[in-house]
Amino acid sequence: MAQTPAGPPRKPAPDTARRSEKSRRAIYDAALALVGEVGYARTTIEGIAARAGVGKQTIYRWWGSKGDVLLEAFLDLGDQAADRTAQPGRDPHALPDTGDLAADLKLVLRATVDELLDPRFEVPSRALAAEGLVNEQIGKEFVAKLLEPSLQLYVDRLRSAQRAGAVRPDVEPRIALELFVSPLAQRWLQRTAPISYAYVDTLVDYALYGIAPR
Amino acid sequence: MAQTPAGPPRKPAPDTARRSEKSRRAIYDAALALVGEVGYARTTIEGIAARAGVGKQTIYRWWGSKGDVLLEAFLDLGDQAADRTAQPGRDPHALPDTGDLAADLKLVLRATVDELLDPRFEVPSRALAAEGLVNEQIGKEFVAKLLEPSLQLYVDRLRSAQRAGAVRPDVEPRIALELFVSPLAQRWLQRTAPISYAYVDTLVDYALYGIAPR
């Protein structure tokens, strides 16, 4: 925080902080609910403010556009999910690394199945993804700020597996992760077929060991 | 064609058939161009008719809705692509089957890369896919009539590979094909990363032989 001529910044009083946190969460919830109900194009700052029970100016004080509000709302949703599965002493976003790559990937992908089937996440995510397909700028932000950082967690896990000899050294992790992440994403996004724990387990086994005879 | 009480159906005079074929193609071209330019929601039968230079009634005589026109326009686009790569004496839609599974899959996926990067195909496809994400009914038709039939061609090729011993007998072809099809689809649809011949070649190698050491 920049210092003002009046002196160093003051920490907000506990009541103010609590009120701000409550407003912030109400705004995230309202933004996610609205985009799920009416789509990205018809979601407005006014609509979010009304639903959250805050003034429009409260939103404009913290965010520049509805796109910014929504991206942060999704990031926050991801943080909440990460907190629920965090392991003590580790980065809450890092993938588990027990030394058993197949088991670790299945654990994470099963949790992703749960998340994708949770309506709180599913409906707004689908609306944002749809907007990203036709609106290149929103799509790029969505990929750069939400999707790619989560894919990099798989890159890290696969690199660790390469050091442990569980993945061939010539394999490119950024491509390899797509063998199990993209099929799940496509089934969910385009509703081409159901998703389940058994399905993601199968993807991991095929990706690790290949479909050709060994 | 059903017989009418007036007698057996007559073949249209050659001039009429040629005129119909020309109108049909003009309507497909107009529908694809419009949905690419203004999106699915703002594409109308009136707009397609005006752009194709035909009367609205011409369209309503052949199709029930704009969704029907668009689906057939995409099917026609796929038929044109299949005709260009057809092998004599074989179903033009079937995947090549030379006995070398990796080579056959790479050939088809490289052709798919070309198609996905062709603006005539890319822009309307993206618009239709985006609509399918949020409009469940359009999405289901898109998947059932366009996407799933093309995926079944991979199922057929993988079953043939299983009979030839090139794919393990316990592998489920409908899931296995997603290891190379879905990554390409996601990169293209969500613009997560570039697509190229080298990329799809890598996907095929990883899917066939796995990323774990052999």
Summarize model confidence as the mean pLDDT of chain A.
88
What is the level 1 CATH name of the domain at 94-209 in chain A?
Answer: Mainly Alpha
N to C succession of SSEs of chain A: HHHHHHHHHH
Do you know the CATH topology of the domain at 94-209 in chain A? Tetracycline Repressor, domain 2
Give the beta-strand count of chain A. 0
Output the radius of gyration of chain A: 20 Å
Helical residue percent of chain A? over 70%
**What's the oligomerization state?**
homodimer
Beta-strand portion of chain A reads: under 5%
Instruction: Assign the CATH architecture of the domain at 94-209 in chain A.
Output: Orthogonal Bundle
Give the CA-based shape of chain A: elongated
What is the number of helical segments of chain A per DSSP (H or I, 4+ residues)? Answer: 10
Structural category of chain A: mainly alpha
Biggest interface: chains and residue counts? A-B, 52 and 52 residues
- Uncertain residue segments of chain A: 1-8
Q: Mind summarizing the main beta sheet of chain A? A: none
